[in-house]
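Justification of computing resources. Each target in the renewal requires a structure prediction run like the one illustrated here; the chain below, 76 residues long, is used simply to show the kind of job we budget for.
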Amino acid sequence: MVVSQELIDWADLVFVMSETDDGHLTFIKSNFSLKGKRVCDLDIPDNYGRNDPELIGLLREKVKEFLLLQGYPPAL
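Resulting structure tokens:
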């Protein structure tokens, strides 16, 4: 999926894979307005293939951790 200002405007939260490895947050900040958006760096290297089961597990784990820390209720 390609990032667009329309998608960022629609989102309540913005997640990036890894600022350290790939500069994703820097890229988004340089190219789009994040005014009023919460942004989370998942710190996951962007070197997985689409639908990679290991990546899916990491995403679930990291997003769940972030949401719980932000006070969102746990998913059922």
